[in-house]
Write a structure and sequence with these properties.
Layout (H helix, E strand, L loop, with lengths): L7 H54 L2 E5 L11 E4 L1 E5 L5 E7 L2 E6 L5 E2 L5 E11 L8 E10 L7 E10 L2
Antiparallel strand pairs: 1-3, 2-7, 3-4, 4-5, 5-6, 7-8, 8-9
């Protein structure tokens, strides 16, 4: 009489091989999911910061009397090098101000409330305004530098550095 079926050793070997293949496949799947989360976080920060920088650029380009720092008056334009506060007058005479509040970029129009223009998931560590030519009769230039990261865990934390230069029209 012939024995039909598998022996215990054959079953254990096949289960061990199957387990190793599944652990490897699961690791690859989890790595792919983490990469997707990181890509989505990066896309979110780029979309948000592109919108914020573009809206700032449009308004700053048409402004005048550029002023940095919380001190002084907006009647005397001044150059600056890395201040975190920036204000100017729009064409209609309304003052617009930008600054870093906590980890968000905020804007104030006139004497209104400070409103965030960067998303909460975008952590801004450094916001710097560099103004050259505001105190002369030439065409002033404003350079904005933003540094920070997006992502709440170390696996998907993605740093960014952005810079744009705007010249007055």
């Amino acid at each position: 009489m012939a024995n039909k079926g598998f022996s215990l050793i054959e079953i254990l070997v096949s289960i061990a091989i199957f387990s190793m293949v599944m652990v490897t496949a699961t690791g690859a799947l989890l790595a792919t999911i983490d990469a997707d989360h990181k890509a989505q976080a990066t896309q979110s920060v780029m979309n948000n910061l592109n919108f914020a920088l573009e809206s700032m650029s449009r308004v700053i380009r048409l402004g005048s009397i550029y002023h940095c720092g919380n001190t002084g008056t907006l009647t005397n334009p001044q150059d600056c090098s890395g201040d975190t506060f920036f204000a100017f007058k729009r064409n209609d005479g309304v003052t617009v101000s930008y600054k870093l509040l906590g980890t968000q970029i905020v804007r104030q129009v006139g004497s209104g409330n400070w409103l965030a223009i960067s998303a909460p998931e975008v952590i801004v560590e450094i916001l710097g305004f560099y103004v050259k030519g505001a105190s002369t009769s030439g065409q002033p230039r404003v350079t904005i530098v933003i540094k920070g990261y997006v992502g709440s865990t170390s696996k998907i934390k993605t740093p960014f550095n952005l810079q744009t230069t705007i010249s007055q029209r």
